[in-house]
Amino acid sequence: MKIAFHGAARTVTGSKHLLTLKNGKKILLDSGMFQGMGRETDALNRIWGFEPSEVNYLVLSHAHIDHCGLIPKLVKDGFNGPIFCTPATRELATILLEDSAEIQEDDVKYVNKKRAASGQPYIKPLYTLDDAKASFGLFQEVEYNNWFKIDEGVEVLFTDAGHIIGSAAVHLRITENGKTEQVTFSGDVGRYRDVILRSPDVFPQADYILIESTYGNSLHDLQTTTPDQLLGWIEKTCLQKRGKLIIPAFSVGRTQEILYSLNQLELERRLPPLDYFLDSPLSIRATELVKRYPAYFNKTIQKVLQSDDDPFKFAGLRYIRSVEESKLLNFRNEPCVIISASGMAEAGRVKHHISNNIENSRNAILMVGYCEPNSLGGRLVAGKKEVSIFGIEHEVHAEIGSLRSMSAHGDYEDLCQFLASQDPRAVKKLFLVHGEYDVQQQFKQRLIQKGFLDVDIPERHYEVGLA
């Protein structure tokens, strides 16, 4: 048995890990899109490092685009096997992939106009809306905590990873030549104090583990609650400076946490009477979907539901669906809060809002999740004084902030707690994926101190034998 790492290797995006069994069967763990990698992004998303038509099964950890975003291209390029995931992941993936396909088509139209002007040949999108829809028939739903057989000698178990609705850690029990071994892939690990979701589940002893390491060298700020931090930014930006507070947020996870926190402020009668715009049709659809899975919520929000039938809605909240309504927000002079996708500010309507408001010092842009360093959000958080948006240079005069308390990824204490159910001496090899290399090196030393004997940080396309 071999494993190869074709994405999220020494970086936090493009999750793709390929298991090849001794009988030649191939199991792909995630088929994620690279995001926010600058000029390299498109090329990275066009090169697999393997032949899609030779993959027998795809096991999907969750629906974030950096984990599922290349499924339509995988199918277009020859994959025709089943895609196993939880029910919520299937629902989320379909709406996210439809949105992603529309972005691919729109982006290519824009790029091709520039290429035509300079005499360059047209390029094709990674995939189209038709390609995305063609992949949906391959999805097969599997509930948490049930071992299920996908092939002779291969069983899979999903356990709740607590990252977003439907997210799972993937466990494969593989029997070859009479010997059984377990391979665990963490997917993205959530937080043990998440305000909405249940904590990650414990899982059976593994022989080999692939674990994400996004925040493997840091701790989240737990001294101030998210509602208090949001209130501070609203008061400073909207009440004191009379400006706009723009919050780039991933449609799944962070958007719901922001809405929930603002609802909490209203219940406590502390929410300022302003207009709060959720400017993302995808985020609106995702929020409605999340509401359909209350069983995945933690005990705190279960209790809130007893007295508040919609913990994601509050006075002043306005849904913006059409492009025309979104454009009108640029002409508003009144203070307001705009929540819009995408979370790294690399695409979507929020990029237009940033472009139109970044040079006004009354305004603020508040990042609420992880941003790949080369993404627009990453460059803003890094303190760049000028940024290019849609090919135009903008001076950064708006205040830039970041709420680390809102990350959907666990910090190093959460990651260590996730691994606490394991006997480190029984783990033959532990691979660090989905993290920046300098962070992973620090996390590796921490894990060695915890007793793990063999910790590896694979490069992209690196392949290694497991047994």
Question: What descriptive keywords fit this protein?
Answer:
single chain, 467 residues, alpha/beta, Metallo-beta-lactamase, Chain A, Rossmann fold, 2 domains, 7-stranded mixed β-sheet
Low-confidence stretches: none
What CATH architecture of the largest domain do you see?
A: 4-Layer Sandwich
Q: Any idea what the CATH superfamily of the largest domain is called?
A: Ribonuclease Z/Hydroxyacylglutathione hydrolase-like
Helix content: 25-40%
Mean pLDDT: 94
Morphology = globular
Give me the side-by-side strand order of the main sheet.
Answer: 6-5-4-3-2-1-22
- Strands, count: 22
Distance between the termini: 6 Å
DSSP helical segment count = 14
Largest sheet: 7 strands, mixed
Briefly, what CATH class of the largest domain? Alpha Beta
CATH topology of the largest domain: Metallo-beta-lactamase, Chain A
Instruction: Work out the strand percent.
Output: 15-25%
What structural category do the secondary elements indicate? alpha/beta
Rg:
22 Å
Number of domains: 2
